[in-house]
């Protein structure tokens, strides 16, 4: 079923990460003349990464599904795809030398990873077939998607949509893509109330609509109603595994399914947290080929702190004692987890992200670190004062006191409660090195490009929910970008030690369709009827059989459909004319 292409790359590889960058100490005010976040890279780190390339690129296995796995499991390990240079890859994509030079300069990259070269020259990929990119966090999936979106605009003269899980991720992506306005490719943000619906047609150039899942659903429905979906040539789904998340997964599934129903749009799904069964089911649902690689750009050392002991995490998920840290007596009342003793060995020379379970906790931890770190860590800094002044300018002269205390010490908190301006200046400060620590919620682990040398998970919880393996993978994946080895440390209390140990050794949780839920399925059915994508019961039955819900459990899905239809009919929300034709009662119906 799969054509397995195994590549044993021997040459050095200068790299790009997921549009990531190094840390500089440039003036913040000099970074921006417009409200556009530039990408900054440490070219020295690229050289260091080249020196490590044998470690990172040997034994890289690439899997491309194309239906003939058993015919040739190791085909052509030395074919020309492996030895293509960046110039040849950009030429195959259809870019001029000027566009290539512009892109590589903007992203400050010298070459592509070998897996990126292979993916970007895969004929089926370039011919518009749907693909799922399943690689580890930081492998460079977003760069491939970015090049394909540019290609769609410049070569095929079509608009694109990219959807991301969180507002912060969408905003950061929109700022990053805005660098391509010089090529007449315009990024438009669709988050909250941002973004015009329906979108205004441009006289010149093409759009990339950057949206959260929910906002993208509204945008797409309007394009369908106005018969304008043909303006979209490429639909990119970041965080594809979120299709299994309660509360939002049904929106992701609906988005993908409606694009599939209407045909000509290429879909690229990206994830670092799909299990083997998920990949098979998602490929069937999306009618997609799978591109998978075990490539990891840098080594990340996983560690766990339990009590005063530090453990290494083995490949099988076992905990192996690394060292004893000693008893934390000095700040035990304020810092019961011993966070300060961990951070003191990292900052300010290296950057750190501390993941906290809640927004309030991220603010508390930021203040605690700023207060308890030695005074030598908190010397006056012109760049930090610039961040404070810029945030005040955004907020009419106001800045929250905890935020100010933290920034003065080189630390900030980051969560969904911040204003766009606050997020912008904090993210910029962290990227440039003015800030060396962020205390963040889980929204920072998906899509927002703020890699750090070290990631500390303060507690294995997101809100009140215990951390699942997919979330853990996303969080530790923030460590070790841009040519540096990384480290992750998870602080685990005794009460949840065995639950955490079991999580490490367990496989990824399967992505179960959230349409196998009466409330979610009812909304979906009403939406399909409203958009006139189904007109009768048989058409609805056939459509639902092709959803992820139908693929995973068709009998349950169709049985639930019958229950929903009877409920809608009893409440006079729909009429079933002649026992077949579906018709909405708009006065009784919220269809979106």
UniProtKB/TrEMBL annotation:
Residues 8-21 have a biased composition (Basic and acidic residues). It comes from the Eukaryota. Keywords: ATP-binding, DNA damage, DNA repair, Helicase, Hydrolase, Nucleotide-binding, Nucleus. Residues 1-48 are annotated as: Disordered. Residues 338-529 form the Helicase C-terminal domain. SUPFAM superfamilies: P-loop containing nucleoside triphosphate hydrolases. Residues 122-292 form the Helicase ATP-binding domain. This is Helicase POLQ-like. It comes from Strongyloides papillosus.
């Amino acid at each position: 079923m799969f054509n397995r292409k195994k590549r044993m790359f021997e040459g050095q590889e200068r790299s790009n990460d997921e549009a990531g960058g190094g840390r500089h100490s440039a003036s913040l005010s000099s970074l921006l003349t417009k409200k556009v976040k530039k990408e900054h890279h440490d070219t020295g780190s690229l050289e260091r990464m080249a020196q490590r390339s044998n470690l990172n690129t040997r034994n890289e296995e690439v899997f491309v599904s194309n239906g003939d796995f058993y015919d040739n499991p190791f085909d052509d390990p030395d074919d020309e795809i492996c030895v293509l240079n960046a110039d040849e890859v950009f030429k195959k994509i259809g870019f001029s030398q000027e566009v290539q030079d512009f892109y590589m300069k903007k992203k400050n990259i010298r070459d592509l990873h070998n897996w990126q070269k292979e993916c970007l020259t895969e004929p089926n990929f370039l011919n518009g077939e749907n693909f799922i990119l399943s690689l580890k966090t930081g492998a460079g999936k977003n760069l491939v998607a970015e090049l394909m979106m540019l290609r769609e605009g410049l070569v095929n003269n079509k608009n694109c949509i990219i959807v991301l899980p969180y507002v912060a991720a969408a905003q950061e992506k929109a700022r990053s893509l805005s660098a391509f306005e010089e090529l007449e490719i315009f990024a438009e943000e669709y988050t909250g109330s941002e973004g015009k619906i329906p979108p205004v047609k441009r006289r010149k150039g093409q759009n990339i609509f950057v949206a959260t899942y929910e906002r993208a659903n509204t945008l797409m429905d309007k394009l369908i109603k106005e018969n304008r979906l043909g303006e979209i040539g490429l639909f990119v789904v970041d965080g594809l595994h979120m299709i299994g998340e309660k509360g939002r997964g049904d929106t992701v599934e609906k988005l993908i399914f409606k694009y599939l129903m209407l045909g000509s749009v290429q879909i690229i799904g990206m994830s670092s947290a799909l299990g083997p069964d998920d990949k098979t089911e998602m490929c069937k649902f999306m009618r997609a080929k799978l591109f998978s690689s075990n490539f990891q750009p840098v080594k990340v050392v996983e560690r766990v702190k339990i009590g005063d002991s530090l453990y290494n995490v083995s490949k099988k998920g076992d905990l192996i004692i690394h060292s004893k840290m000693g008893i934390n007596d000095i700040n035990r009342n304020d810092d019961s987890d011993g966070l300060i003793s961990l951070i003191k060995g990292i900052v300010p020379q290296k950057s750190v992200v501390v993941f906290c379970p809640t927004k309030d906790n991220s603010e508390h931890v930021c203040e605690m670190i700023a207060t308890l770190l030695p005074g030598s860590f908190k010397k006056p800094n012109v760049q930090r004062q610039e961040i404070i002044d810029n945030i005040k300018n955004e907020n009419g002269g106001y800045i929250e006191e905890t935020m100010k205390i933290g920034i003065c010490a080189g630390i900030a908190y980051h969560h969904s409660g911040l204003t766009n301006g606050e997020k912008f200046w904090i993210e910029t400060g962290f990227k440039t090195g003015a800030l060396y620590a962020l205390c963040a919620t889980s929204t920072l682990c998906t899509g927002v490009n703020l890699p750090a040398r070290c990631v500390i998970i303060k507690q294995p919880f997101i809100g009140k929910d215990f951390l699942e393996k997919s979330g853990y993978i996303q969080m530790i994946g923030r460590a070790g970008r841009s040519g540096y080895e990384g480290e992750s440390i998870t602080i685990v209390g005794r009460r949840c030690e065995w639950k955490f140990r079991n999580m490490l050794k367990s496989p990824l949780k399967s992505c179960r369709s959230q349409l196998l839920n009466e409330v979610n399925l009812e909304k979906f059915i009403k939406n399909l009827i409203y958009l006139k994508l189904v007109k009768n019961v048989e058409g609805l039955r056939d459509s639902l059989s092709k959803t992820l819900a139908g693929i995973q459990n068709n009998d349950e899905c169709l049985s639930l459909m019958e229950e929903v239809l009877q409920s809608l009919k009893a409440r006079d929300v729909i009429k079933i004319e002649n026992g077949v034709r579906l018709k909405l009662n708009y006065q009784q119906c919220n269809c979106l």
